[in-house]
Amino acid sequence: QVQLVESGGGLVQAGGSLKLFCTTSGRTFSRYTMAWFRQAPGKEREFEAAINLSGVSTYYADSVKGRFTISRDNAKNTVYLQMNSLKPEDTALYFCAARVLAYSLRPGDYDYWGQGTQVTVSS
Fold it and tell me: For residue 56, what are the contacts with CB-CB under 8 A and spacing of at least 6?
């Protein structure tokens, strides 16, 4: 069982930055592909970014490419999401997710989820 805990969310003005953190329990963090999703009120959960086991390969949704950066530190059992040039439309509950297989865009393919951290971008 893997437990994921997100943090780092908050209120920021448009154009600002935030860094999200997702820490995990257990000793098997390096075995999981990690991803960030977000869900705005009334909308479906959407893929934003993913990173492979070693951290060498990353994947991004077009909406965040060039603004968001995903990274991981396997020694600290932590995955990060650096968010720059934030826009009001980035406002959502952000979730960290893990799966054993290669990354997927579909939320249903992930094995473990955190509870989410709220990001609110004011205009």
Answer: none
